[in-house]
């Protein structure tokens, strides 16, 4: 390594030469990595950015008249790659933040609409006649047809008939919520879970 270092320090640096590139990489990678690490504060990203800079210089197969010119170009390249990473990921972070805010707003809007719809449905359920109201309320609490039948002293078929009639009545009373009728069916089938 000492002979490689002396050779690199005293001659032109031609990155087309694989041996010279390997020697330069081995000599400068630790310093270059430390440089990007100070800027990015992330070990994995710093390693990637540093390797990208060396890869870029390898692909371009640059020739440098001396070590000072090479170092200057290397640090310039590292700085640009680091700034590009920061810029690109800043946009990604901002997009993720916007997405999070948008999703939060949608969730809040969804909850508000759901609560309003639930309140409207319960209001109409409470307007149903006694047996129909009781059957729907028990279904919303998760009771099975057997349990409702036993609770109210009705046959299972009577419970099903009253439930069907209650749904028809609710559909009529909630006709001003036409877009929400589908939601009504979904919510009722899920028992507001």
Q: Helices and strands in order, then pairings?
A:
Blueprint: H1 2-10, E1 13-14, H2 18-40, H3 43-60, E2 63-64, H4 67-127, H5 130-140, H6 145-152, H7 156-173, H8 178-190
Antiparallel strand pairs: 1-2
Strand order of the largest sheet: 1-2
CATH superfamily of the largest domain: RNA polymerase sigma factor, region 2, helix turn helix motif
Summed up, the helix count is: 8
The main β sheet shows up as: 2 strands, antiparallel
Termini separation (Å)? 70 Å
Order of helices and strands: HEHHEHHHHH
Could you tell me the number of beta strands? 2
Mean pLDDT: 79
User: Which regions are unreliable across 5 or more consecutive residues at pLDDT < 50?
Assistant: 1-6
Annotated CATH topology of the largest domain: Rna Polymerase Sigma Factor, Chain: A
Level of helix content?
over 70%
CATH architecture descriptor of the largest domain: Orthogonal Bundle
Radius of gyration: 36 Å
Classified by CATH, the class of the largest domain is Mainly Alpha
Strand content: under 5%
Apparent shape: rod-shaped
Number of domains: 2
Class per helix and strand makeup: mainly alpha
Can you characterise this structure?
With 193 residues, the protein is an all-alpha fold. The chain has two domains: 2-94, RNA polymerase sigma factor, region 2, helix turn helix motif (Rna Polymerase Sigma Factor, Chain: A, Orthogonal Bundle), CATH 1.10.1740; 128-190, Winged helix-like DNA-binding domain superfamily/Winged helix DNA-binding domain (Arc Repressor Mutant, subunit A). The protein is 83% helix and 2% strand. Helix 2 (18-40) runs antiparallel to helix 3, helix 2 (18-40) packs across helix 4 (67-127) and helix 5 crosses helix 7 (156-173). The longest helix is centred in the middle third of the chain and has 61 residues, at 67-127.
